[in-house]
Prior knowledge:
- By secondary structure, this protein is mainly beta.
- It is built from two helices and ten strands, in the order H-H-E-E-E-E-E-E-E-E-E-E.
- The protein has a single domain (20-156), classed as Calycin beta-barrel core domain (Lipocalin).
- The protein is 7% helix and 55% strand.
- A hairpin with a 2-residue loop joins strand 3 and strand 4.
- The chain is globular, with a radius of gyration of 19 Å.
Amino acid sequence: MSEQTSQNLAGEKPLPKEAKPVLGAAHDMLDVFVGEWRGEGKAGDTPMTVEESYARLEGGFFLTTTFDRKVGEARQKGVGSIGYDAENNVYSMHAVDSLGYDRTYELEDVGDTWTLSGDRERATYTFKGDGRLHVLWEHRPDGGAWQPLCEYDLTNSGKARPH
Length: 163
């Protein structure tokens, strides 16, 4: 008897057949992010510089992202992925960073604005349509009311290199 059969006999429910993902218009919506974005802004009164890169992962289902944010002398670098779950009709982003944070966000597209919503952080990405992007991050470090975290403007210098 195979290991899988013995596990099922031990009380595990068999999984339903998994549908093969199909590329569609929802995946194409992610193209607004693709490119090398650079800019500056502020975290409170502290100046910051930002570099964000988004590229299509081979196959086209996901974007990969890298980011490098410098606030004063502090630096946060990270990597992530953005994808679309057709079964649940939802976009999500998963990111990890050099400060030790591991975050998952749900994304929502409303025209030229994308919102990222997480338990402790949220962001509004407003695409200007001419290679410019305005980003506003908020957080609730104590789990209470939302507070400003940082705000910055980016310019897309072109298509991102594959990650």
